[in-house]
Amino acid sequence: MSAVNNFVWGPVMLTLLVGTGVFLTIRLKFLPWRNLGYAIKSVFSRPEYLDGSNGDITPFQSLMTALAATIGTGNIVGVATAMVLGGPGALVWMWIAAIFGLSTKYSESVLAVKYRVKKANGQMAGGPMYALEQGFPQKQIGKILAFLFALFASLASFGIGNMTQSNSISDAILSTFNVPNWITGLIILVLVFIVLVGGIQSIGRVCGTIVPIMGVFYFLAGIVVIIINHANLLPGIEKIFQMAFSTRAAAGGAGGMIIAQALRYGVARGVFSNEAGLGSAPIAAAAAKTDHPSRQGYINMTGTFFDTIIICSVTGLVIASSGTLGQLDAQGNPITGVRLTIAAFSSALGHFGALIVTIGIALFAFSTILGWEYYGEKSFEYLIDHPIATKIYRIIYSLITYVGATTALQTVWNISDTMNGLMAIPNLICLLVLSGKVAEECFDFQKKYRFKK
Question: CATH fold of 2-452, please?
Answer without folding.
Answer: Amino acid/polyamine transporter I (1.20.1740)
